[in-house]
Write a structure and sequence with these properties.
The protein is of the alpha/beta class and 478 residues long. It is built from 22 helices and ten strands. Helix 10 packs antiparallel against helix 11, helix 10 packs parallel to helix 12 and helix 11 runs antiparallel to helix 15. The longest helix is centred in the N-terminal third of the chain and has 30 residues.
């Protein structure tokens, strides 16, 4: 919700403005009403509302002077001027100071809806643009840009930070009504179309714990909540974000809703990896079926998370590549981080299915007979399908079933025929389309990400930068 305050020395005028709009419908909330400009200024300095409706002529300070003062103090506050004077010079001066609109009072009901619709669109675009810049700055080594974008980290020495990520089944949900949210001590950033990031701060560590303990994360739209550890250094914010994202990614493992706190348990998964290592080195593939079958339940029983799964995946990949380099050199066996794992596999069982296919492929390697003509024909159809559907969620497991090709052999065909892995091929298609949309449309970056197949803006931003060398926002400016 966008916070609004109304300032006018005449109470009837405040009532008229308050009643003229359907505030809540358009995402606004009135957080203050003032007949004194001095008291209003104190509130603005402390609470930083998003929007101020103000009269021009008032006994203490004029509305224009109020606008000037907030600009001089660097406050990011927007204004709508409501006045009983229709002189063009007043309107001209108000707009010169940056007012979003100039209206005559009493408010005309017929103009109220178009005005608030216009304001809602303005704040939506502004929030989206600022959101993208803050996300980029949060993960940058240079924090100067972050300090310019938000005062949240000012005077942050001896302050405790904790990060919370809410993963929802609905887009654009607002969770500010939950008890953990304190406007002054919480920074809200959209992390994707269905993920929202909250950075919490407090002078006391116990206060952060109390705020989270009081929050009741209920509602059918909340899929998962991820909570990071605590840090007193704002330089560690990127690390806390990663921890919260790893924690909320627990839903990838067992698809069960819940609240998950980051807790690394790499020591628990190590014996399991040792068992797989022994099987690979001794070629005891008949035992692998049992290992793979137990993998999901092992993770669930020990409450293991994405950090442990990433560690297991990368250790197994290292073992396979070092032991069967020639046999698997065209395979899509890359070291992956947690975002890449979630992008590549639909769920944990899908990942296990892929690993099992690899072991079956190795075991049957010598007896395998392949009709190359049929396989190449099916592969051509598969590539054409990908070219036309890259904006949708694509998983190699599903495609291999659809086009009758073992997914392990699919990996080899991509590398042999196209010189790149399945993931690389899909990524190039998506980023190429994203570049076109950024150049030739006015779609927001979040909308561009969604249209090319990325529901998670944060991940899209990283992939785009990796492919193009710059972030999407900088690409659009260039």
């Amino acid at each position: 919700m966008y916070s609004v305050i109304i300032i006018d020395d005449e109470p009837w005028a405040i009532k008229g403005i308050r009643n003229a709009f359907n505030w809540h419908k358009y995402g606004f909330e009135i957080t203050g009403q003032f007949t004194s400009v001095h008291k209003a200024m104190e509130f603005i300095s402390k609470e930083r509302p998003d929007l101020v409706f103000t009269d021009i002529r008032m006994p203490e300070i004029s509305g224009l002077d109020l606008m000037r003062l907030t600009k001089e103090k660097g406050m990011d506050v927007e204004f709508v001027v409501v006045s009983g004077f229709s002189e063009f010079t007043f309107a001209q001066e108000a707009l010169r100071y940056g007012a979003l609109d100039y209206c005559l009072k009493p408010m005309d009901i017929e103009t109220a809806d178009p005005l608030i619709d216009k304001l809602a669109l303005h704040f939506s675009k502004k929030r989206s643009s600022k959101n993208n810049l803050i996300l980029e700055a949060l993960t940058s080594a240079d924090k100067s840009e972050l300090n310019r974008l938000t005062p949240f980290f000012d005077h942050s020495s001896d302050v405790y930070f904790r990060v919370l990520i809410i993963y929802s089944s609905s887009e654009g949900k607002d969770y500010r009504n939950l008890k953990f949210f304190d406007r002054k001590h919480t920074l809200e950033v959209e992390f994707g179309s269905t993920k929202t990031l909250y950075i919490l701060k407090s002078d006391k560590r116990s206060d952060l714990d109390d705020r989270l303990n009081c929050a009741v994360f209920t509602g059918s739209d909340i899929k998962a909540v991820g909570i990071s550890s605590t840090s007193t250094n704002c330089e560690n914010i990127a690390k806390l974000i990663k921890e919260a994202d790893l924690a909320v990614s627990q839903i990838f493992l067992n698809e069960e809703r819940g609240i998950f706190e980051y807790e690394p348990k790499l020591n628990v998964v190590k014996p399991f990896i040792d068992g797989i290592s022994s099987i690979i080195q001794e070629n005891k593939f008949e035992e692998m079926d049992d290992i793979i079958e137990r993998l999901v339940s092992f993770f669930k029983q020990n409450h293991l998370g994405m950090g442990e799964l990433v560690h297991l995946w990368n250790q197994v990949v290292s073992l396979l590549v070092s032991t069967y380099y020639e046999e698997l050199r065209y395979m899509e066996l890359d070291f992956l981080n947690y975002s890449e794992l979630k992008e590549r596999f639909e769920n944990f069982e899908s990942l296990c299915f892929f690993l099992n296919d690899i072991f079956i492929y190795i075991k049957q390697l010598n007896s395998q007979s392949i009709n190359e003509g049929d396989i190449n024909s099916y592969f051509t159809q598969m590539v054409k399908y990908i070219d036309n559907h890259f904006q949708h969620r694509l998983y190699l497991k599903d495609l291999s079933i659809k086009f009758f090709i073992n997914q392990v052999y699919c990996c080899q065909l991509f590398k042999k025929n196209l010189g790149k892995t399945f993931s690389e091929y899909v990524t190039e298609l998506r980023i190429k389309k994203a570049c076109e949309l950024l150049k030739h449309t006015v779609l927001s970056i979040e909308d561009v990400a969604t249209k090319v197949g990325y529901a998670d803006y944060y991940y899209f931003n990283k992939v785009f930068k990796k492919q193009c060398g710059i972030t999407p926002s900088k690409f659009r400016k260039s």
